[in-house]
Design goal:
This protein is an all-alpha fold. The chain has one domain. The protein is built from 2 helices and no strands. Helix 1 packs antiparallel against helix 2. The longest helix has 29 residues. It is rod-shaped and about 50 Å long. The mean pLDDT is 78. Keywords: Membrane, Transmembrane, Transmembrane helix.
């Protein structure tokens, strides 16, 4: 069984991942002018981080009510 502080740590990491991914996704246009391939990779990476972080946060938050 996962301890309560471990759940909070996972929630914090996923929340940070979602926030940083979202921030990075907003910055991809700045990189587009210099290198379009790099900009595409940047956009894909940040969008993936934002999606995984958001969904993971939602799932763990939903499941965390079962933690004692």
């Amino acid at each position: 069984m996962i301890a309560k502080n471990q759940w909070l740590g996972l929630l914090t990491v996923l929340n940070a991942m979602a926030l940083v991914g979202t921030w990075g996704f907003t910055q991809w246009a700045n990189r587009l002018a210099t290198n379009s391939v790099l900009a595409g990779a940047w956009m894909a990476t940040c969008a993936t981080a934002a999606i995984i972080g958001s969904l993971g946060f939602a799932v763990l938050l939903t499941l965390s009510h079962k933690v004692k």
